[in-house]
Write a structure and sequence with these properties.
The complex is a heterotrimer of chains A (about 525), B (about 300) and C (about 300). Chain A has about 525 residues and is of the alpha/beta class. Chain A has helices spanning about 1-30, 35-45, 50, 80-95, 110-115, 130-135, 145-150, 150-160, 160-165, 190-195, 210-230, 280-290, 305-310, 325-335, 365-380, 380-390, 440-450, 465-485, 490-505, 505-525, and strands at about 65-70, 95-105, 125, 165-170, 170, 175, 185-190, 235-240, 255, 260-265, 315-325, 340-345, 350, 355-360, 395, 405, 450-455. Among the domains of chain A are: about 1-30; about 35-180 and about 355-385, D-Maltodextrin-Binding Protein, domain 2 (3-Layer(aba) Sandwich). The N and C termini of chain A lie far apart (about 75 Å). Helix content of chain C is about 75%, strand content about 0%. Classes of the chains: A alpha/beta (about 525), B mainly alpha (about 300), C mainly alpha (about 300). At the B-C interface, helix 1, helix 4, helix 5, helix 6 and helix 8 of B face helix 1, helix 2, helix 5, helix 6 and helix 7 of C.
């Protein structure tokens, strides 16, 4: 027995040594960022990237920039074609070459972590995970100076008002993507049924105070009751997400990085536990009531159908969602029914770092990265290529000058679909999509300019000291959120249980830490 | 074994050399594919700073492990993981061996083939699809059980996705249903490997089929069974994520009987996206599995050396 | 085949009433089990040909009210992608399985020899891999930075799937239990080398285990999507069938994940394949295996012949 043990111990020790040694030699490869970048640059046969750096001499080879974005749709098989078309513009203009990499939205964060931890070169990318974590873990570079020198136009596109939202201790690490920020909660209902029962959505108020919102809820209840009484086969209120009717989103609040500790309303600086708020409780009870009255489908927490397919199957009457103008057109597009929509509040922007584009730590040539990033935010030809593909191949122009799929092609059969339009760096300079209202981009832009911003805009929470608590609380929320947000579980029993578990998991530690950082931030930025 | 002379040993080495050469490709693959990446275990003890790279990042001791025990449910998830695994191992083995023996007894070769093919089908359907099928059976409003089966038995409809007490059965049945084909193939091929003459001789001696199974088949299957069980025991702290997450459709009401270590880790890290913490969970599961397997293998070795794994 | 026939002949001679009853019950049990395994599968097929509207209104059904092949038409309309994906899946499965059987059997045989010096250490070396793994990050780092297999077809074949300790141990056990020592001794006396013995004696009598392990490995390759997901970042033309299937499933889950981006994508009409299409894709993933499986089975039953001949 002991002999056997000795033998394998020796063998294992040898293997471990080998592993450690190779591990160490590998460490030099990814140890320092420049080093890693250079290595991968060579491996990608893009060694010229670093040579071209700095001087814009016309004879120098164009620097190659790997641009990675998230794909929220079917597989993009025609990347090469789009890439070539972009390079025809970029090479003469800024002497840079782009290489596109599309990663599935569902796998994006995971893949970025893999690539960044293994030192794979990526030059410009949608930031993985949350902006604050990416900064805390040094995944992305400080681009403040580069932005000053090569990115003034991009900065102007984002606008001073929103640039402050990505500023951390006076430094910028990523640019927020530009799209309609004025999105608010809306209630949308089938136009044909509203007419049939002589119902109107005119009475809804857009005031954010809780009295007005409660009045909205009562109005909604009357409408839903009427439909429930007359259309027994219909689901009066379809949950936008599985297990989430999104009713509680009418509560005015601003998330601070995550929903573990939020501020209520636009002017507050007090971090509180959202789930323990009076408003959340009210919403839960109301939902439970609606669920029991049959306004919400019984399987809401576990259905395998999306809201779009339930609505397009003619099975639902209304839905709540967070949207900008033109939601009715989108619903029509997604479900083929006519919807009448009404906004339930005024826009309040509390956070713009939800989706940012940044320069990863493994970038080979940050200067080239910045030049390309600038084009991605300001060049409408590039933007249109990225959003809709190549003209007459992937899209055609309609009479109104909007982009549409060619005859007989749809998102699933196209080799370059259009579903990413909202996630590109700057949606507002690309072509408009077929079916949008007239002057769509212009209106969104105006709304962005007039939208109110929360006092806390620009505060970025660093959660690295409360990782354990965040993990434990996330798991607790996952247990209760679908039940409570859909009315499918008993509130009397589950809400107190939920809050107790959150406390046990340490939500108060997170809130304290957040408050501390927020106060610090407020003091640093002279905000009262 | 008698002591071999020096010359004999050299001869033996010469004989054995081709055997070692044959093992080179496989050994190399295991070293590259399995051993080399083990250096990653240390990620579990690091606070990753991407600008330094994972090697140069700061050590944090056991910080990344803390979230595994930071929950009041730590007991529940550990209990669930272990109990389900034990039940799966026991019932899975019994079902696999029984079906293999039954298959072997079937005379008609057409049916024998047909059974085998069909039993393997569930293995080929991805867990997500299994979850959809499960939903078709279990959903409250128009699921088969509530619509067709329960009324026949005169029972009230059950709200399956909010009643945790039914799930130990649902999960076990699904696991057995899905794994039966795979498990029985292993045992069936082992039975096919048994020398026919043994049965013929027994038959001449007047042994009935039942006796033949008891006296020949089962004893000869023993090694295979022990090996299969030992290999499952090493994974006692792991669980089939698809089975425990997809099939219950992530219904919060069912957590008391469906939450396992893997689903907890997944849920906890959904937002954090923290590589170090997820590898910490993996290391924890491996270490526990390793300890268990060394103990069990030690016991097996004591009882029956031939059946031990190493 | 002959062995099977011989066995059934001999049993027919002595087939008593008791034996007939026994056969009846054995068949009944297996039949019921098979039916239980088949039922959900039939449901899968029938929901793939159910009209989408009917499916949403009435839910899943064994006997759809209104049949529609729209899902299949749709899949074939995206034509070339599907055909290519099938091709990739088949290529990867065949090549992977052949290589895997090669390196697994050449390693399993020496390990099955009790007289191999250092055998226990090697077995532990093998077994240890079942318990510990470094996780995805280090593997990914190694395969992409050292071996450069990213965005190549090798990425679908090499990482992870080529050899597993589980299969190796099963095969080693089979060899240990089924290769008669006398046969090896006899061959050795005849002066045959170990290579010769392996090729001429071991391989021919190991068809059942080869078929079994081959089946497991092939299933592993056929059902794999992870390698494609992680290692193909701009060569989507190398996506296998399972990659397409998995992508759809992941997208659906993602859309319902409650993350802000996902809610946005849902709102903006990120297309999700209908239930019928998901089911149809899944059926298409299973069918080739159903077609190919009987070929493997042929080798399982061959084991009987060999069993009765060997002495």
């Amino acid at each position: 027995m002991s002999k056997v043990w000795k033998k394998w111990m020796a063998l294992f020790a040898a293997l471990a040594m080998a592993a450690v040694m190779t591990g160490c030699s590998g460490s030099t490869g990814s140890g320092e960022q420049m080093d890693a970048g250079m290595q991968s640059a060579q491996e990608q046969k893009g060694g010229e990237a670093s040579e071209a750096r700095g001087d814009d001499g016309e004879e120098s080879e164009p620097a190659e920039v790997i641009f990675r974005f998230a794909n929220y749709g079917p597989v993009l098989t025609d990347l090469q074609l789009v890439e070539d078309a972009m390079n025809e513009i970029l090479i003469p203009k800024i002497n840079c070459k782009i290489r596109l990499e599309a990663i599935d939205g569902s796998n994006y964060d995971n893949q970025m972590n893999l690539d960044l931890s293994s030192g794979t070169r990526i030059d410009v990318a949608k930031t993985a995970g949350s902006y604050n974590t990416a900064i805390a873990q040094n995944q992305i570079l400080d681009m403040t100076e580069l932005l000053e020198e090569y990115g003034q136009e991009a900065k102007a596109e984002v606008g001073e008002k929103y640039m402050q939202g990505v500023m951390v201790n006076g430094k910028v690490y990523g640019l927020p993507n530009v799209n309609g920020r004025g999105a608010v909660m809306q209630f949308g209902a089938r136009t044909d049924l509203l007419k049939k029962y002589d119902l109107s959505l005119d009475g809804f108020s857009q005031q954010p105070d809780w009295e007005s919102q409660s009045a909205n809820l009562r109005l909604m209840e009357e409408i839903l009751q009427k439909v429930a009484d007359n259309e027994p086969d219909l689901i009066p209120l379809v949950a936008d997400q599985v297990g989430n009717v999104r009713l509680d989103e009418i509560i005015p609040r601003t998330n601070l990085g995550d929903d573990l500790g939020v501020v209520m309303g636009g002017d507050s600086m007090d971090v509180v536990n959202y789930y323990a708020s009076k408003q959340f409780e009210e919403c839960c009870y109301l939902l439970r009531d609606w669920y029991q009255k049959g306004f919400i489908m019984k399987d809401v927490a576990t259905t395998t159908e999306s809201s779009n397919s339930i609505l397009s199957g003619g099975k639902g009457f209304s839905v709540l969602s967070n949207s900008e103008i033109g939601w009715d057109a989108q619903l029509k597009n997604n479900t083929s029914y006519d919807f009448t929509c009404v906004k339930l509040s005024l826009p309040l922007v509390g956070n713009v770092s939800g989706m940012t584009y940044s320069i990863p730590v493994t970038a080979a040539d940050p200067v080239a990265s910045m030049k390309v990033l600038n084009e991605l935010y300001t060049n409408s030809e590039i933007e249109t290529l990225l959003t809709f593909g190549v003209e007459d191949v992937h899209y055609v122009l309609t009479e109104e000058g909007k982009a549409a799929y060619p005859e007989g092609i749809d998102a699933n059969t196209s080799s370059y679909h259009h579903s990413n339009f909202w996630a590109v760096p700057n949606q507002l300079i690309a072509l408009e999509m077929e079916g949008t209202v007239a002057d769509y981009n212009k209106t969104l832009k105006e709304n962005n300019e007039t939208a109110d911003v929360a006092k806390v805009l620009g505060f970025v929470f660093d959660n690295s000291s409360v990782q354990t608590e965040t993990a434990a609380c996330t798991a607790v929320i996952d247990e209760y959120k679908n039940g409570l947000r859909s009315g499918s579980i008993d509130v009397d029993k589950n809400l107190p249980e939920f809050l107790k578990k959150l406390e046990d998991a340490g939500i108060n530690t997170i809130i304290e830490e957040k408050q501390r950082q927020l106060d610090q931030w407020a003091a640093d930025n002279h905000i009262q | 074994m008698p002591k071999t002379s020096h010359k004999g040993r050299r001869l033996k080495w010469k004989r054995m050399r081709p055997l070692y050469i044959m093992m080179i490709p496989g050994t190399l693959y295991l070293i590259i594919n399995n051993y080399f990446p083990m250096f990653g275990i240390f990620i579990a003890f690091k606070k990753i700073d991407y600008s330094k790279g994972i090697f140069a990042s700061q050590w944090t001791g056991f910080d990344n492990f803390r979230f595994l025990f930071a929950t009041k449910d730590a007991f529940v998830i550990t209990r669930n993981t272990i109990l389900y695994n034990l039940v799966f191992i026991v019932l899975g083995t019994i079902a696999g061996v029984t079906v293999a023996i039954l298959l072997n007894e079937v005379i008609s070769s057409v049916w024998k083939k047909l059974y085998q093919t069909i039993l393997l089908l569930p293995q080929l359907i991805s867990m997500v699809i299994v979850a959809y099928i499960g939903y078709a059976f279990l959903n409250v409003e128009n699921g088969f059980l509530n619509n067709s089966v329960l009324p026949l038995l005169g029972l009230e409809p059950v709200s399956w996705y909010s009643e945790p007490r039914y799930w130990p059965f649902i999960l076990t049945i699904t696991h057995l249903w899905k794994g039966l084909g795979y498990g029985s193939v292993v045992y069936f091929s082992a039975i096919l490997g048994i020398d026919r003459e043994l049965y013929e001789a027994a038959s001449i001696d007047g042994a009935k089929r039942g006796q033949q199974i008891r006296l020949i088949t089962l004893p000869l299957l023993k090694t295979t069974i022990i090996i299969m069980v030992l290999m499952s025991v090493g994974n006692i702290f792991r669980s089939d994520f698809g089975l425990f997450y997809q099939l219950p459709l992530n219904s919060g009401a069912l957590y008391s009987t469906t939450n396992t270590i893997d689903t907890y880790v997944f849920r906890a890290l959904m937002q954090l996206n923290n590589t170090a913490m997820s590898s910490a969970a993996g290391v924890f599961q491996s270490v526990v599995g390793f300890i268990v397997i060394v103990i069990v293998n030690g016991i097996v070795r004591r009882v029956d050396e031939d059946s031990a794994l190493y | 085949m002959t062995g099977l026939k011989r066995e059934s002949d001999s049993s027919r001679e002595v087939m008593s009433t008791g034996r007939k009853v026994q056969q009846f019950f054995i068949n009944l049990v297996l039949f019921l089990l098979a039916a239980a395994a088949l039922a959900p599968f039939i449901l899968l097929i029938s929901s793939s040909i159910t009209d989408e509207g009917t499916l949403i209104r009435n839910g899943y059904s064994f006997f759809p009210e209104k049949i529609s092949f729209a899902a299949y038409e749709y899949l074939f309309a995206s034509g070339i992608k599907m055909v290519r994906a099938y091709g990739i899946s088949i290529l990867v499965t065949v090549v992977g399985t052949v290589i895997s059987l090669g390196i697994t059997s050449t390693m399993a045989y020496p390990l099955s020899r009790k007289d191999l010096p250092g055998r226990n250490a090697f077995l532990f070396f093998v077994f240890f891999t079942m318990l510990f793994n470094g996780g995805l990050t280090p593997s990914y780092m190694m395969w992409t930075r050292i071996f450069h297999i990213k965005n190549t077809i090798f990425a679908l074949i090499i990482p992870g799937l080529l050899m597993s300790a589980f299969n190796l141990i099963l095969m080693k056990n089979y060899f240990a239990a089924n290769i008669p020592g006398e046969l090896l001794e006899a061959a050795r006396v005849d002066g045959a080398g170990e290579f010769h013995i392996f090729c001429r004696i071991v391989i021919p009598i190991s068809t059942p285990i080869m078929a079994t392990i081959g089946l497991f490995v092939a299933l592993g390759y056929w059902n794999d999507w992870q390698n494609g997901l992680y290692y193909l970042s701009n060569r989507m033309d190398l996506y296998s069938l399972q990659n397409y299937l998995n992508k759809m499933m992941q997208d659906i889950q993602y859309l319902n994940s409650g993350r802000n981006e996902a809610m946005m994508a849902n709102l903006q009409g990120m297309t999700m394949p209908s239930t019928a299409i998901r089911m149809a894709l899944s059926v298409m993933g299973v069918i080739p295996v159903m077609v190919l499986y009987p070929f493997f089975q042929k080798y399982f039953t061959k084991g009987i012949t060999i069993g009765s001949v060997k002495g």
